[in-house]
Amino acid sequence: MGRPRTAIGTFGEFTYVPAPNGRIKARVRFRDDDGQLRLVQATGGTRKSAERALKQKLTRRDRFSAGSRDLSGDSTFGRLVEVWLADLDLTDKLAPSTRALYERNMRQLVMPAFESHTLREINVRKVDQFIKKLASTKSYSTAKQARTVLSLAFGLAVRYDALKENPVRGIARMHKPPSQTMALTLEQVDAIRDAARGWRRAPGTPGPPPDGQLEQIIEAMLGTSARIGEVLAIRKCDVDVTVSPATVRICGAIVSPAGKPTYRQAHPKTQKSTRVVSVPSFAAEVIRQRLVVVGPEGPDQLLFFTRNGTPLTTNNIRRRLRAVLSEAGIEGVTPHAFRRTVATVLDRASGPDLAAELLGHTSSKITKEHYIQPDEAVDPVTAEILEALAPKRVEGQP
Asked: For residue 291, is it within any domain?
């Protein structure tokens, strides 16, 4: 064939050289994603077939490079999930409980629908139909959680250049079904207190009686507005009963990562929700009782703990509360109900801003939407004002 021949192709200058068995080898230097020039070559029976084979090889390589060494449009969704979870661990910005929730939602809600699809096969229509079906067959909340992890994972694919756009961005807007926040009445709170005090204390009840911590935890939740995990994380050094009113610093949370021991996290649910709250007398009394139990222990000693001295888990307290309320015939009450009750009481007395401040919210909007029971009563002063519209009395008429 003589000297190698060259031609200008889509990917640069192709070179053609003889190959064994009378075939032709086409080759070109290709700049990879890392900036390095590498020789890529393909063989065919003729110059044209060798060129076509080389172009196909370069196209596949270009698509791969357009993504990354980890992801491309031809990667499966399952591969994206692996890379996304590894990226979450690398950035390490999520609380362990949130990280576990994201993975659980992804594997249980999303993966069954998309696991074997390649990224380029997943479009807006497929995601939109998936989310709508989930909302109709499961719930709005379930669909919203699935949408969150889908959007995060596809966002990573966009950042890795494996996709041009995040398909979740184009789906129809989700509409939350109407719901109403419900707070406990004072009568319900007292009934819960009575049920907790009487639980497993009747004469003849087998086993040791309860240690009284559940009742104390209920009072602490009502007196601080804190989440159950935040109450369980209160330490000896976080309280001050020498001032009036007594104060509690909400600055941690008890968390139980999957497969790992329960421990005290050094901040509440969010970093910005650390706060010092003044507590009413009933909560201050509980704190004094716990300080007596703790005795001479060091300042980092938790006020609430197991018989072995380890942190109480939030699931343990929730189970115990369910058992207490079930025996008393009280349904639908969770630890979060106490937090909503506190917010509603404060709103009625002083408005949503004070409620948001106590609950550790950065905005009263969240407090009003999710924690305060709407007040249907209109200010009775309207009746006095509207007296101006009363019909005038005509002398002689009854």
From this structure: yes
